[in-house]
Design a protein that fits this description.
It is a single chain. The protein is mainly alpha-helical. It is built from 21 helices and no strands. Helix 5 (81-92) packs across helix 12, helix 12 (224-246) packs antiparallel against helix 13 (252-269) and helix 16 runs antiparallel to helix 17. The protein is globular.
């Protein structure tokens, strides 16, 4: 067999291993190692590449952003900022049918600007927003669906761990990726709010049981002074982290450190964290960072295997032979990501797809920063689709209501997955939406 055929077989074998439950980094690393060994008929090269992959993964300075932003997100979640942001947005949307759902989207968007974690958002707003919606007679599927759908905003609105991972793999600027995520994040948030408005107007029974909300008095509304006081910590964190990066005063690593320190001070000042909680946050940060680094290390040797097998070059030749251009590449990319989304988490999809498609899209002359936004949003759709749907599983495990099944969560999230796909197509058609803020 040719190296190309062996490479294709290895990719299929890797997907099968993941589907059977093999830990993703193990599947990536082992299959890639064995494939290189078979192609070159020598174990020396895969051993050398493994050593380089491990060394590259742990030595890059930019990797320090991962533990710092992860720790910041965990600390900010414990500080109760998510509940505060929700109260603010709930007050602003209180007169609109479906307003609690819109408030949840707005709160998730703002919360994402200081955490960058979809899992944290899903956990926080399941506890805060779902009980409020149930109290107001909202449909249970809509209640959990809007939390699931809006939780993915944490993956695209900066600071986002997924944008950092893409920047590292594609050798792009983390600051540029953060800038590129702003307009798509706002666009996705606006699309969610518009979708809720349309659903409330034309399909009110999906939003509210019987199309009628319960008494307004049950909602906790705030005065103008309270709104300002609750917004100050959020504004301070956003200005520190994103303002520091965009003005050039701080590098992304320094901004992550400053945000983590400010979040810790906020949690301590509010008496929301003790030594045990601080230690648990450190441990969780270590676990998340270690798993991401392990995955990136495995993806590094995987990308080298693809190059040795000649798969990207073969795909490029195929596109050139049949004169398939930009549109065909995008269709292949989106279909592949939707398929992988049924099996893998977002980070894994990014690390598998990017090494495969990067050599194909570069000759097309497109912006690799824009391409990163497309990949991240495409991979995010998998957070809402079965059978994996991590955000949906987090919501189900967090919610204290036996009447809400996992099927309810997935069915409620389905319309929002459709909105994400529509926004993805818009961003593909109009790349300027992702690159307009770049210097």
């Amino acid at each position: 067999m040719s190296p190309f055929e062996i490479g294709l077989i290895s990719v299929v074998a890797m997907v099968l291993m993941i589907y059977l439950g093999v830990y993703i980094p193990i599947a990536l690393g082992v299959v890639s190692f064995v494939t290189i060994w078979i192609i070159r008929d020598n174990i020396t090269l895969p051993m050398a590449l493994l050593k380089v992959a491990v060394g590259d993964s742990v030595k890059q300075y930019s990797f320090a952003t991962i533990p710092l932003f992860t720790f910041m997100g965990l600390i900010v979640s414990r500080a109760g900022l998510g509940e505060d942001v929700y109260k603010v947005m709930n007050t602003l949307f209180h007169r609109v049918l479906g307003g609690v759902g819109m408030a949840t989207v707005g709160a998730n968007a703002l919360f994402a600007a200081v955490t960058g974690s979809s899992i944290a958002s899903a956990s926080v707003f399941t506890k805060v927003a779902v009980p409020e919606m149930m109290k107001l007679n909202y449909n249970k599927r809509f209640a959990v669906g809007v939390v699931a759908g809006s939780s993915v905003l944490g993956m695209i609105i900066p600071p986002s761990a997924m944008l950092i991972i893409y920047a590292i793999v594609a050798e792009q600027s983390v600051g540029h990726m953060f800038l590129a995520g702003i307009i798509p994040g706002i666009l996705l948030s606006a699309a969610y709010i518009a979708a809720i408005f349309i659903m409330a107007k034309f399909w009110p029974n999906f939003v509210v049981n019987g199309g009628k909300m319960a008494a307004q008095e049950s909602r906790e509304l705030l005065s103008a002074g309270q709104l300002v006081l609750l917004c100050l910590p959020l504004v301070g964190l956003v200005l520190t982290v994103l303002g520091g990066i965009y003005t050039g005063w701080l590098t992304p690593v320094e901004a992550g450190a400053a945000g983590a320190a400010l979040g810790l001070l906020l949690a301590v000042g509010r008496r929301k964290i003790n030594l045990k909680g601080f230690w648990n946050a450190l441990l969780e940060t270590g676990h998340i960072t270690a798993s991401i680094l392990f995955l990136i290390t495995a993806a590094s040797i995987y990308s080298r295997m693809l190059g040795i097998a000649g798969i990207p070059n073969a795909l490029g030749d195929f596109l050139e032979t049949y004169q398939l251009g930009f549109a065909a590449v995008m269709v292949m990319l989106v279909v592949l990501m939707l398929f992988l989304g049924t099996l893998l988490d977002t980070a894994s999809i990014i690390l598998i797809v990017v090494p495969l498609f990067l050599p194909i899209v570069e000759p097309l002359g497109v912006s690799l920063v824009w391409f990163g936004i497309i990949v991240v949003i495409g991979a995010e759709i998998g957070l809402l689709t079965p059978p994996l749907g991590i955000s949906c599983f987090v919501i189900k495990s967090t919610i204290d209501d036996p009447n809400v099944t996992l099927k309810d969560v997935f069915m409620g999230a389905l319309p929002f997955a459709g909105v994400m796909l529509a926004v993805l197509l818009i961003l593909i058609e109009f790349p300027v939406l992702s690159t307009a803020l770049l210097p």
